[in-house]
Write a structure and sequence with these properties.
Layout lengths: L1 E12 L3 H13 L4 E4 L52 H16 L5 E4 L2 E4 L3 E4 L5 E12 L22 E3 L13 E5 L3 H12 L7 E4 L4 E5 L10 H17 L3 H10 L3 E2 L9 E7 L1 H7 L4 E3 L4 E5 L2 E4 L2 E4 L4 E5 L14 E2 L2 E3 L8 H14 L3 H6 L11 H18 L2 H9 L4 H10 L4 H27 L7
Parallel strand pairs: 1-2, 1-6, 2-3, 6-19, 7-17, 8-9, 8-17, 9-13, 10-12
Antiparallel strand pairs: 4-5, 5-6, 10-11, 14-15, 15-16, 18-19
Helix pairs in contact: 1-2, 1-7, 4-5, 4-12, 9-12
């Protein structure tokens, strides 16, 4: 064990996206020092474990850290994201965070990075290479950047038994397959499964050779309505209008989702199946058309085992063969964990305080740490937003986010920071539109102002009627 140890104002557990965004903002707002501990060999968190064809599901322009742009702000001209802001690849994101660590954090002289270390109870950093344990002294706080606990197929094996002869791969192994397969079985219905289906179709695999085990279907955001750029401002602002007007007029929760779908604000793959999942993922309408090409969809519950000649499910089984490739996409992604106060005695727990936006949330938490003098004031402005899992979490997220935003608008310094923050492209877009002479944009803003109060009130009523959880 190292006797000297390392002292810093903040000990940050993890060097993933949220931890990086938090540290970046505090570097700007304060003269604090940091030690960051991560079990991986470089920053970027779960992006280091992701499959090679992974991409952001949202525009790169408002992801990463506040001080450094990610991507070039280009509009994709080819592919199923054509016409929308570019989506950074996993490799680009890892390179981006590595550059931020080297050229901003370490170059500042105020950040010490301990890669390949586990953070242990009692404030120790244990090297995964040598076993050496170093005591870490946090003069102000320990910052827990691991609350999201992202889980990927490459790091979390399937929960069901698999016969030794079965060809089971994780998504990261897909591009390396050299032995032809008779068909492919996708296991899972979330973002990873969608990416795998789209990748296989991009390789010109006939859709009839894809079998998709989808125990749950999901709602998706329409990506074209989440573009914080001036030339498509109307569609982006219209998303907010649709959300609030649909909520205001909804008879019940089911009616709310019908209204959102009718307006193309939320999308689903199969219009005949009611989604029971919502994870903040986005798709374009072109991607949706491709996903619908896969007709071999199996809805017999979750996989219980894979045998050499069949996949066993909760409510039956499907025949396969020894040359079937099974793709494990059933890791839980970002599991739902109980919320807790963000600011605690000697501790900060990074959580979403804005629906679906992890890096903005972390940066805003850092701003509050720097600019507010007590934890009661900080926590009043940083109410955690539940991690989305089921459709009803769309309502919870909208309500909590809008309530937080109402408080933020009343704080001049926080409102000014948001207006300039790269990670909050939507606020900057709204401020620009407010100055526009375009009567169509003015009409959208007027409709949003008229619908927001009644819409939020109706969401609160629907949640209360559902007991805060409901059947969704």
């Amino acid at each position: 064990m190292s006797d000297a140890g390392i002292a810093a104002d903040y000990v940050v557990i993890g060097a993933g996206a949220a931890a990086m965004a938090f540290t970046d903002t505090l570097l700007t707002e304060t003269d604090a020092t940091f030690v960051m501990v991560d079990r991986r060999s470089r920053p970027g968190g779960h992006w280091n474990d992701a499959y090679p064809f992974v991409r952001l599901h949202s525009a790169a322009t408002f992801y990463g850290v506040n001080s450094a742009p990610l991507g070039c702000g280009r509009i994709d001209q080819v592919g199923w994201n054509s016409g929308h802001l570019e989506l950074s690849s996993g490799a680009a994101i890892c390179g981006y965070f590595d550059d931020v660590m080297r050229h901003r954090f370490l170059a500042s002289g105020r950040v010490t990075f301990l890669p390949n270390h586990e953070y242990e109870p009692g404030g120790f950093a244990a090297s995964r290479l040598t076993g050496t344990r170093t005591i870490l002294h946090a003069r102000r706080r320990v910052v827990d950047g691991s609350h999201a606990d992202t889980r990927l197929p490459s790091t979390h094996p399937p929960s069901f038994p698999v016969a030794p002869s079965v060809r089971l791969v994780t998504p990261d192994a897909l591009p390396g397959i050299t032995r032809p397969a008779t068909d492919f079985v996708i296991i899972g219905g979330g973002k990873t499964a969608i990416d795998c289906v789209l990748w296989l179709l991009e390789q010109d695999l006939p859709p009839e050779r894809i079998f998709w085990i989808r125990p749950r279907d999901s709602w998706f955001y329409n990506r074209k309505r989440m573009q914080p750029q001036s030339d498509v401002a109307a569609e982006t602002i219209e998303q907010y209008v649709i959300d609030m007007e649909s909520a205001r007029d909804a008879k019940n929760i089911d009616d709310l989702f019908r209204r959102l779908e009718t307006k193309n604000a939320l999308l689903r793959i199969d219009p005949e199946v009611t989604p029971t999942m919502f994870h903040c993922a986005t798709v374009t309408e072109a991607e949706l058309s491709q996903l619908r090409r896969v007709r071999n969809v199996i809805r017999k519950g979750r996989v219980t085992a894979i045998e050499p000649d069949r996949v066993m499910l909760e409510h039956g089984d499907i025949p396969t063969c020894r040359e079937t490739v099974h793709i494990h996409c059933a890791a839980s992604g970002v599991p739902v964990r109980p919320s807790e106060p963000v600011f605690q005695d000697g501790r900060i727990v990074l959580q979403f305080i804005q629906h679906c936006w992890p890096t903005f949330s972390a940066a805003a938490i850092a701003f509050l740490e720097a600019r507010r003098s007590d934890d009661a004031a900080r926590n009043r402005l940083a109410v955690p937003v539940r991690m989305a899992d089921r459709p009803i979490d769309w309502l919870r997220g909208e309500l909590a986010s809008r309530e937080n935003e109402a408080l933020w608008f009343a704080e001049p310094d926080l409102a000014e920071w948001r207006a300039a923050a790269r990670l909050d492209g939507f606020t900057r877009l709204f401020l620009a539109v407010e100055k526009s002479p375009d009567p169509a944009l003015r009409d959208l803003l007027n409709r949003l102002e008229a619908a927001s109060g009644p819409g939020i009130a109706r969401i609160r009523t629907l949640l209360e009627a559902a007991g805060g959880a409901g059947h969704m």
